[in-house]
Structures are given as structure tokens and as C-alpha cells.
């Protein structure tokens, strides 16, 4: 579905991504791990159009999407979340979801004068869809709360919900578990698995928590120093000598846990 070919991203003399090549298969939940500074988030940003690559190519379903801006990729079904949730604090959780789909009639000044019925009909449909998403994610009870008032884990669920308001094909999740308690983390994991199995979402996940990665992801891709080191199951990744070498500073040889 996504093919990354020899992608480089340089910031002056620093090579944040240094010749990364990988493939994300349609229908997979792929984990992306690696030491701090491995280039994982920068690679996400390049694929999602937040940053242009210095060189290399990214294709989606055979189409060259290299350097396309995020709003164009959004309309192609490629969405990305961030380590820190980007909610609209003063709006309710339901309103945060309702504003996601583009091209709404209420965005045009002409329609506010002459298309009020159409706007009202759209808003009713969006409200119903938002309520369905909130129920799916088991957070209906926060629908009318301001998004700035909810917990960090609930904000992560809300971000996941925003991807459900449009026809997402592939979603890049950047540290979805950061700052989330274990109960909500398992709720997020269950929602991702259900979206993958029942709605055909493809996911790519950067995550510190290896229990979370093991629960969800196959394959797992490991990066270090901007390069792809290895790909396979998490067990295969943990047994890979190059990966062990890359993680020596985090004590991988003495722990059954890999930090991303």
C-alpha cells in the first residue's frame, strides 16, 4: 500500500532519515520501533507530507505521493496523529469530531444565507456519526465535555475517533500510548484492532510500550540512525544482533523490553 524508496531527510549536516526503504502492506498493523533519535517520527512526517524529503520517493497504491501536502493526502485517505493530541480545547468532544470532514456546506458564506436546510441536514448527519464514533470508542459519556477538560488517554481516543469521521485508508499513529494509563491503553488497542479487522484500516504505529506493540503489530520494523535495521515479528526483532547492538544503551541484553 505504502512503499518508501531510499528516503533521505537532512537538516543541515544531520541525516535524520538516511536511506530508509520499507513497505507497508494493506490491511496490516505495522509497528515502527527504534532508539530515541532513530528517525521514526521524521519518517512519519515525510510520508504524511508534513516535511518534504531531501530525496527518495513515497508511493501509495502505486501513485507517487512524494511531497504532497497533508490536506491532499487527507483526501486520499492517509491520516496521521501526533505524540501530543491536537484537539480544539474550547469545543466539545462531539464538536471536535463533527468538524473533521471537509467540504461542509456551512463553510461557504453563500450557503449560510440560502442553504440553511442543507446545512442543518448535514449537521444532523454529522452529529449522528460523531455519536456513533464516540459509542464505538466507549467514550459517549464525554461527548458534551470540552476537549480541553478530558484526560490524556481520552484525547488519544478522540484523535483516533477523528480518523473515523472520514474514509481513512491508512492511519499513522505516533506514540498513541504516551501518557495513557493501562486501562485506556488497552481500550485504544482494542479499537485499533477492531478498526483493522472490521473496517479494513491499515495502521502504522510508533510506540514505546512493547506489550502494546506485541499485542497488535505484525510486522515490526526497527530503525536506528535513520536507517531500517530489521523487519519481522517482535520476537525476531528482539533476537536480531543489529537491533541488540542499536539498543545497547537501553540495556536490551538485560531486559525483555525494547524502548522505541
UniProtKB/TrEMBL annotation:
One of its GO terms (cellular component) is plasma membrane. One of its GO terms (molecular function) is ATP hydrolysis activity. Its EC number is 3.6.3.-. Gene3D superfamilies: P-loop containing nucleotide triphosphate hydrolases. CDD domains: ABC_Mj1267_LivG_branched. Pfam families: ABC_tran, BCA_ABC_TP_C. It comes from the Bacteria. Residues 2-250 form the ABC transporter domain. It is an enzyme of class 3 (hydrolase). Keywords: ATP-binding, Hydrolase, Nucleotide-binding, Transport. PANTHER family: CONSERVED COMPONENT OF ABC TRANSPORTER FOR NATURAL AMINO ACIDS, CONSERVED COMPONENT OF ABC TRANSPORTER FOR NATURAL AMINO ACIDS-RELATED. This is Lipopolysaccharide export system ATP-binding protein LptB. The lineage of its organism: Bacteria, Pseudomonadati, Pseudomonadota, Alphaproteobacteria, Rhodobacterales.
Amino acid at each position: 500500500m505504502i512503499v518508501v524508496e531510499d528516503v533521505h531527510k537532512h537538516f543541515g549536516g544531520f541525516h535524520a532519515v538516511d536511506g530508509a526503504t520499507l513497505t507497508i502492506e494493506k490491511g496490516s498493523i505495522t509497528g515502527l520501533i527504534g532508539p530515541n533519535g532513530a528517525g521514526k517520527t521524521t519518517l512519519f512526517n515525510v510520508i504524511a507530507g508534513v516535511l518534504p524529503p531531501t530525496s527518495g520517493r513515497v508511493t501509495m497504491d502505486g501513485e507517487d505521493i512524494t511531497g504532497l501536502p497533508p490536506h491532499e493526502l487527507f483526501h486520499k485517505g492517509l491520516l496521521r496523529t501526533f505524540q501530543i493530541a491536537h484537539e480544539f480545547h474550547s469545543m466539545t468532544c462531539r464538536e471536535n469530531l463533527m468538524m473533521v470532514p471537509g467540504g461542509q456546506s456551512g463553510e461557504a458564506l453563500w450557503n449560510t444565507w440560502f442553504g440553511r436546510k442543507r446545512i442543518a441536514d448535514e449537521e444532523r448527519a454529522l452529529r449522528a456519526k460523531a455519536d456513533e464514533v464516540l459509542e464505538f470508542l466507549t467514550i459517549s459519556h464525554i461527548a458534551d465535555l470540552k476537549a480541553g477538560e478530558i484526560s490524556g488517554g481520552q484525547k488519544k481516543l478522540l484523535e483516533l475517533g477523528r480518523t473515523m469521521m472520514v474514509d481513512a485508508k491508512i492511519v499513522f499513529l505516533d506514540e498513541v500510548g504516551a501518557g495513557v494509563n493501562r486501562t485506556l491503553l488497552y481500550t485504544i488497542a482494542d479499537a485499533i484492532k477492531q478498526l483493522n479487522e472490521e473496517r479494513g484500516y491499515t495502521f502504522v504505529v510508533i510506540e514505546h510500550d512493547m506489550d502494546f506493540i506485541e499485542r497488535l503489530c505484525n510486522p515490526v520494523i526497527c530503525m536506528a540512525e535513520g536507517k531500517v535495521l530489521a523487519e519481522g515479528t517482535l520476537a525476531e526483532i528482539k533476537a536480531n544482533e543489529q537491533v541488540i547492538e542499536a539498543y545497547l544503551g537501553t540495556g536490551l541484553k538485560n531486559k525483555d523490553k525494547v524502548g522505541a
